[in-house]
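User: what does the whole thing look like in 3D?
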Amino acid sequence: MPELAEVEFYRKQWNPGLGRTVGRVRLNARARVWRGGDADGAAAALPGAKLLESLAHGKQMAFRLDSGWLGVHLGMSGALRAEASPEGVVLAAGPHAHLVLYPEDGGALVFEDPRMFGRLRWTAGPAAPEWWSGQAPSLTGPEFTPQSLAGALRRHARAPLKAVLLRQEHFPGIGNWMADEILWRAALHPALPAGAVPPRKLRALHAIVVEVCRDALAEMGQHNGDAPEHWLFNHRWRDGGRCPKTGGPLRREEIGGRTTCWSPRRQRLPRMIAANQANQLS
DNA sequence: ATTCTTGTTGCATC
DNA sequence: AGATGCAACAAGAA
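Assistant: Here's the predicted 3D structure for the full assembly of 282 residues, as structure tokens:
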């Protein structure tokens, strides 16, 4: 599930732990979610550490403690939640709870992830680790510009636009449905080679990327609720779904390695490019 | 039973 | 050399 807005939602789920000191820790160091993430370091450092701050950037989260940084990526099926409990009561954790922090004064902060595509990591010390500070600039910040967008598209000029929008090193936080939403609003075909976006459409595309991020955060970052009815999101998985703008049918097909939904009447592939792609198949 | 999945990575190939 | 595409990872839902 988790894309930009949902990550922001899940970050807040551990808010009840802010300012509190971790007592016991339940940690499965052999779980795949710890791959390369220094589970042993976390197991040693987390008990007794105070949770100072939580941060989200794209699909990545960081929890800053007084002894180091805990990184959380939710993958496909990860989730964070908090549970309340009377002091001294140890709550049961399900089989997929690979990390549980029990604040000294009660409750539990749980990370669970059945599919284990998610990722946990620990870095000791006060300095922001490379896995946090090395991320691409936020799409809602000043460093994301029509120029930087153009650079990303140039860099992957022959890849389908859909695939490029999913690249986290350029578009942190964009996931499958946000990419489809952006392309739909921008009236661009998902299979259009990124380098073939007309220069005159760059500003609009940039504005739409920002808009979808802002809208998603506003609508779903607070309560993980549903998207507004007029979004493509609400129509894209329904068989027989129709485009809210044209009323025409939606198509669903794998593009750029991911299931993609688009409105053919609105998002057309220029004939020249369609012909080229047909040639390359033969 | 089978096929689907809102993510990332490593590796083969171009 | 750099870009691209695909399989793999794993489990639950439809």
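In plain terms: Chain A is about 25% helix and 20% strand. Residues 32, 76-77, 96, 114-117, 155-159, 163, 256-257 of chain A lie near DNA strand C (CB under 10 Å from a C1').
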